[in-house]
Write a structure and sequence with these properties.
With 435 residues, the protein is of the alpha/beta class. The protein has ten helices and 22 strands. The structure holds S-adenosylmethionine.
């Protein structure tokens, strides 16, 4: 059934939202204020989904998507909006969630942290599938709303040299003996080296290895192999173990990492994020600071350049070991200490046991930092750190934790803002400052 609908808003999946006979209707690729011609696809009890047939009156935020696979690939669902509008939508989502989930309102909204809109994804997991019907190997991201791999030969958000590898990887994998037993390739781009991690379900033959080596030489990459679980990841050439690092030039740091370690996806925005987070934290030479969910010390080591002492806490021992090593390499061992601990299982006694901290940085995974927020909120006033800078990749858990810090702990939410870490996608990275 065809209908004409006026679009009222847009969600983080790039779906326009309107109403048909009072029922909310989601229309992928339609934008606010647009008048669109749609066909209903599904009619559920409380909502409809529809297909956009044509735009009758177009929004001023609509732009032509740069990627030829837009709509097919599930990777970037916001490419039809100009980047400033994408950021505004993410900012609105952050404010809404803070209000509705946490019942908090920041005193100030910070200017968004921007970076490049294209070629920014320095870490990615590419799916690989042999498709018998096409007698082809596909390498890329999943299709929108599907488990199929998109038939794509380029990607606008991967660095150009990685995008250029996509068609070459299709041919390479098809020529391996186990061409239909390769489920994924992980990409990790460092400042000087690009690593590809090949997950292979069957053993590789010598001929396969020769082909991989030839490809690596021709394309200036380094292969790592993953025959089984994550702890079996190893470099094909053992001497290439320590080639990956990213620079944080403002703090004169080279952060060495392994291709499957957690690192921020967008190294350029990461530099600005680290710089801003540290200026909000404002470390002083006598400050004692704690960095929770510290990974390989992305914030800990820059803080150590300015503060008296920093403790980094993280769940993965491989990361705290690497962080300790990077601190040594940069002469920061005397100011830093790294602890390995499950931060979802801590309490006030644990926090109190570490002694008093002047400031705290928190950068949790999507699940947030519930136990930490509760522990911070139940310290007495003179035990409390004066400032908490919270970096978040999920506004819903940030909002929940902010609700605890403000409504139970009586912290003030001084400011919050978005970080455009993942342009064209619905991911919302943000930063919040509590005092
Ligand atoms: C968003 S990352 C931030 C890492 C680091 N701050 C950075 O900027 O690179 C979240 C980190 O939390 C760690 N993590 C996840 N679950 C954890 C847990 N239960 N306890 C402690 N650390 C955890 C992950 O290993 C990861 O390093």
């Amino acid at each position: 059934m065809q209908r004409i609908v006026k679009i009222e808003s847009v969600d983080l999946n790039g779906q326009g939202v309107g109403h048909i006979d009072g029922k909310v209707t989601f229309i992928p690729f339609a934008l606010p204020e647009e008048l669109v011609d749609i066909s209903l696809v599904k009619q559920k009890k409380s909502y409809n989904t529809a297909r956009l047939d044509s735009v009758i009156q177009s929004s001023y935020i609509r732009v032509a998507p740069k990627c030829e696979y837009f709509g097919l690939c599930g990777g970037c669902l916001m490419q039809h909006m100009n980047p400033a509008a994408q950021v505004a939508i993410k900012q609105r989502a952050l404010e809404d969630q803070l209000k509705h989930i946490g019942n908090v309102v920041p005193e100030r909204i910070m200017a968004p942290i921007h970076g490049p809109y294209w070629k920014y994804r320095f870490r990615a997991r590419l799916s690989v599938r042999y498709v018998q019907k096409k007698n082809q190997v596909l390498v890329g991201f999943r299709e929108r709303n599907s488990r199929y791999v998109a038939d794509m030969k380029s990607c606008q958000i991967l660095p150009a040299h990685v995008s250029d590898l996509l068609p070459l990887l299709r041919v390479l994998i098809h020529n391996l003996s186990c061409y239909n037993r390769i489920p994924q390739i992980e990409v990790a781009v460092g400042s000087k080296t690009t690593v590809l991690v090949l997950r292979h379900l069957d053993e590789l033959t010598q001929d396969d290895i020769d082909k991989l080596l030839e490809f690596a030489k021709a394309n200036n990459i380094s292969w790592w192999l993953q025959p089984k679980g994550p702890d079996t990841v190893h470099p094909l050439i053992p001497e290439e173990e320590n080639l990956l690092f990213y620079d944080v030039p403002e703090f004169d740091l080279q952060m060495q990492f392994k291709p499957t370690d957690f690192t921020q996806v967008n190294h350029i925005v990461n530099r600005t994020l680290v710089s801003k987070a540290i200026s909000y934290l404002d470390p002083k030479p006598n400050d004692r600071i704690i960095d929770l969910f510290c990974g390989l010390g992305n914030f800990t080591l820059p803080i150590a350049r300015l503060a008296g002492q920093v403790i980094g806490v993280e769940g993965a021992s491989s990361l705290t070991e690497r962080a300790t090593h990077i601190a040594q390499e940069h002469g920061l061992s005397c100011k830093t200490e790294f602890k390995t601990l499950n931060l979802f299982e801590v309490n006030t006694e644990w926090l109190r046991g570490l002694g008093r901290f002047d400031k705290v940085l928190i950068d949790p995974p999507r699940e947030g930092a519930l136990e930490i927020s509760k522990a911070l909120s139940s310290l007495s006033l003179d035990e409390r750190p004066e400032r908490v800078v919270y970096v978040s990749c999920n506004p819903a858990t940030l909002a929940r934790d902010a609700g605890i810090m403000v409504n139970v702990g009586k912290y003030k939410l001084k400011a919050a803002g978005v970080v455009n870490m993942f342009p064209h996608t619905g991911h919302v990275e943000s930063i919040a400052i509590f005092e």
